[in-house]
Design goal:
The chain is α/β, with parallel strands linked by helices. It is 51% helix and 12% strand. The chain has three domains: 333 residues, P-loop containing nucleotide triphosphate hydrolases (Rossmann fold, 3-Layer(aba) Sandwich), CATH 3.40.50; 97 residues, no CATH class; 112 residues.
Length: 645
């Protein structure tokens, strides 16, 4: 199997400012020319804009419009079309340059004018990563953060290793990626230095780590609760249960003993009024039953009263209807309509004939009934008035009955209250000291039973705490085993790391890196060391040179071995810092030397004819003779910008 291939075939911008560029396999140069003798004047011509457009088409998410690269000209650009070829499949991404958070469209096939009206798949920007990774065959994986949360290695994150924005890529390798450990994750995945098994274990470890944290929090909350209640351990909870049960059994035995003593005592003389309490209790029960019957009867009468009120309301409505019909009949019977009362036009015989067809001569609507011919079902006013009188009489009787029952119910309640007071007063007179003592013992037993129930609750919490402790211990053992596997899975392929180091060394030698003697690549951070020092310590002038060489080494590794690096580099002006012209020219000559076997006379050659399975899109203000066949556009400020009117 080969490394995935990604080629940008065409880039089109629509709007008041527009462009249309075609790219081929191999080397593609965008040169910014100096027209005023000041190389810095080329900075505003649009070199970085090309990289921004490519990133935008590949799903870059912008935090806000203020930091959007094209914010100053956003009203002059409209739509971006990016035709790409991923593992032999060609499709075109359409994305708005004004509504930067709007969904993208993915069209099948190459770009053609008018494609906007064709059908396409709508893809939210936050799902562009899955679509692009899937088309390239790059697995969707995540890496674990310190707290256990997973961070996906999205396409937009991986893209920073092969779409090299000058501000992000040459000050340091993957300089804008935070934290620094994430750089090793990106390089490890793309180059295959890190085995894929590592990411499966990352998922498992993350789930267990988060579960351990959740159970730890629960465990700590239970432990705090038990400590506040004076039971910090399972042994103490069980000890407290035994103490309370022992004390409770002693109290119950004392109660039984005292009850036996009462039964063995001689019976005292029966007070004269002792049978009266039972009589009063029977009276209270009888009163409660009578009161319940009264309440039920009142509720029934109230329902009947509601029904009678509804009937009375209906009868009054019928009487009003009859009166309205009689009034309209009386008024209309005295009027002879020869003119329409609204438009004042004469009512013709032809209009009168309408009523023969069941239509009104005035309004021409279908006749159902008229005021001079009321429906037969309407009752006579005498009957309605008689029914209203009967309903009002029934309502008065019902209301009177409710009042009578309420008075009787109040008397029953008063009597019940009097009997209750009498029973209470009489009971207090005849309660013996023995009963007081027995009651005190009962209350003591009740309190101890409550203490026992509370202690059992604490014991259940302590047992739950112990169970959670065992679960957490088991999870930690499992986590430890996975961590051991993870450490083994993270073992870097030493052979591949050595291959990458050799390629990097060859490139540094080819470009004649100043004072170069040797290089190594750290097996944990994957960062290069040159002459025994970290590459960033080579000085401002050569840090960018070392960085771009490292990206070129990853591209060369992808061409040589199976990796997930998509064999493309978009390089935005690699001359950073104080890089001297000599080393700059040697870097450019190395890039030109990669284009072996291409015919400079042929503007576009297929990969089969050309034999090139890679693509480099380079923006530069400095050019060399070898670049001329591969320059697809020359730009300059302010007259020949990347985006033109």
């Amino acid at each position: 199997m080969k490394s995935p291939s990604l080629y940008i075939n065409r880039l089109v911008v629509h709007g008041a400012l527009h462009c249309d560029f075609k790219f081929r396999h191999g080397l593609n140069i965008l040169q910014a020319k100096d027209t005023e003798g000041d190389p810095k004047k080329t900075n505003k011509s649009g070199k970085t804009a090309l990289v921004e457009l490519i990133q935008h088409g590949l799903g870059k998410q912008h935090e806000n419009k203020d930091e959007y690269h094209f914010a100053p000209i956003i009203d002059k650009i409209k739509t971006l079309w990016l035709e790409i070829e991923a593992n032999g499949e060609t499709f075109t991404i359409e994305r708005s340059l004004q509504e930067i958070s709007a969904q993208a469209k993915i069209h099948e096939g190459a770009y053609v004018p008018g494609m906007a009206n064709a059908g396409a798949e709508m893809v939210p920007i936050n799902r562009m990563s899955s679509a692009l990774l899937g088309s390239l065959g790059i697995p969707e994986v995540s890496v674990r953060q310190k707290k256990g949360d997973l961070t996906p290695l999205s396409f937009q994150l991986l893209m920073q290793a092969f779409v090299l924005h000058q501000e992000d890529s040459f000050g340091a390798i993957l300089g804008k990626v935070k934290p620094p450990a994430r750089r090793a994750d990106i390089i490890g995945l793309l180059t295959g230095l890190t085995p894929l098994e590592r990411y499966t274990l990352e998922d498992e470890i993350s789930k267990i780590q988060l579960e351990v944290q959740e159970k730890d929090n629960y465990f700590n909350s239970i432990q705090d609760f038990l400590i506040k209640n004076g039971v910090p351990s399972l042994i103490e909870a069980e000890s407290r249960i035994l103490e309370i049960e022992k004390s409770l059994n002693l109290s119950r035995q004392a109660q039984l003993k005292f009850q036996e003593e009462i039964r063995n005592e001689s019976k005292p003389e029966i007070p004269a009024g002792e049978g009266q309490i039972d009589n009063w209790r029977r009276q209270i029960l009888s009163i409660k039953e009578d009161a319940a019957n009264k309440e039920q009867k009142i509720a029934g009468i109230q329902k009947e009263l509601e029904r009678l009120n509804e009937v009375l309301s209906s009868l009054r409505t019928d009487r009003n209807k009859y009166q309205k019909i009689q009034t309209s009949n009386l008024i209309l019977s005295t009027v002879e309509f020869s003119l329409c009362p609204r438009c004042l036009l004469e009512i013709t015989p032809e209009m009168h004939l309408r009523e023969g067809n069941a239509r009104c001569s005035l309004c021409n609507r279908p006749l159902r009934t008229t005021s001079d011919n009321p429906p037969r079902f309407i009752q006579k006013p005498k009957d309605i008035d008689q029914q209203i009188g009967e309903a009002e009489s029934l309502i008065k009787d019902a209301q009177k009955e409710i009042d009578v029952n309420r008075i009787e119910l109040a008397k029953l309640r008063d009597r019940e209250k009097e009997l209750g007071i009498a029973i209470d007063r009489e009971s207090k007179v005849y309660i013996s000291p023995s009963f007081d003592r027995l009651l005190g013992q009962t209350q003591d037993i009740s309190q101890k039973e409550a203490d026992l129930a509370n202690a059992k609750g604490l014991l259940a919490q302590a047992r739950a705490l112990n169970t959670k402790r065992k679960e957490i211990d088991d999870l930690r053992k499992k986590l430890g085993m996975l961590e051991d596997k993870f450490r083994d899975a993270r073992q870097v392929s030493k052979a591949r790391l050595e291959t990458l180091r050799e390629i990097y060394q060859e490139i540094l030698t080819e470009i004649d890196f100043p004072d170069f003697r040797n290089c190594t690549i750290d097996s944990r951070s994957f960062m290069p060391y040159i002459n025994g020092n970290l590459y960033t310590h080579t000085g401002t002038a050569f840090k960018g040179l070392a960085s771009v060489s490292y990206y070129l080494a990853m591209l060369a590794l992808a061409r040589k071995e199976k990796t997930f690096f998509p064999k493309i580099l978009v390089i935005d002006s690699p001359a950073v810092g104080d890089l001297n012209e000599d080393n700059h020219d040697k870097l450019l000559k190395y890039l030109a030397s990669l284009q072996k076997g291409s015919d400079p006379k042929v503007p576009t050659i297929s990969s089969d004819e050309q034999g090139l399975d890679w693509q480099i899109i380079l923006t530069t203000r400095r050019s060399i003779q070898e670049f001329k066949p591969y320059i697809f556009k020359e730009i300059s400020a302010p007259n020949h910008m990347l985006l033109e009117k």
